[in-house]
Write a structure and sequence with these properties.
There is one protein chain. With 199 residues, the protein is of the alpha+beta class. The protein contains five helices and twelve strands. A hairpin with a 7-residue loop joins strand 6 and strand 7. The mean pLDDT is 90.
Length: 199
């Protein structure tokens, strides 16, 4: 789905997500700052929307801000008992990237699949989410490296930027999404996340 957002280049939505009939969100590239409140803790965050043809590239470039091994959560939100979460801890970034390139279609086009990459234990809290709404969301006390990546890709900061997930929306799964999810989890030697420790 191509959206004429009034910019020089039309915005292309990933296959996995669509605004609902009552949504007033006009999909376009951009990002905004915010603060995530978790109990007494406040964590700076940014949320970005990127056109489908550039989405995966921007995501992998954001991962370049990590300087050590990472923990990886693979999530499938297919509803009810079909929702699953897999985890692999202590993955070296080059190893993760080599597997991610084989899962590009799953991440970009399947509306039930999301991925979270986190700094490993002992490192400053940093998370990059490629969520199932196909938004890129970063939580980190230092957002500067991530903002630099977005600016290098000419994704503009907009305090009023809105995400599809903030209003009525529709998730669309690809036909082989579940098997592709299983294959990626197997290739990365991921294990199911126990219910009590799910993020």
């Amino acid at each position: 789905m191509v959206v004429d957002s009034g910019d020089a280049q039309a915005f292309r939505l990933p296959r996995g997500i669509r605004p609902g009939p009552q949504s007033t969100v006009v999909p376009r590239e951009g990002y905004r700052h915010g603060v995530f409140k978790d109990g007494g803790r406040k964590v700076p965050m940014l949320a970005a929307t990127v056109s489908a043809e550039r989405l995966f590239e921007v995501f992998t470039d954001l991962l370049g801000a990590f300087t050590d091994t990472v923990d990886v959560y693979l999530q499938r939100h297919a509803g009810g008992e079909n929702s699953r979460e897999m985890l692999r801890e202590g993955v070296e970034l080059p190893v993760l990237l080599s597997h991610l390139y084989g899962a590009e279609d799953l991440l970009v086009d399947d509306g039930a699949t999301g991925l979270v990459v986190c700094a490993s234990h002992g490192q400053p809290m940093t998370e990059v989410h490629f969520d199932d709404h196909k938004a890129l969301i970063v939580y980190a006390y230092n957002l500067t490296p991530f903002m630099e990546v977005l600016e290098e890709h000419q994704i503009r900061r907009d305090p009023g930027h809105r995400l599809i997930l903030e209003e009525q929306h529709i998730h669309l799964e690809i036909p082989d999404g579940e098997s592709a999810f299983d294959q990626f989890a197997c290739e990365l030697s991921m294990m199911p996340v126990p219910e009590k420790v799910r993020r």
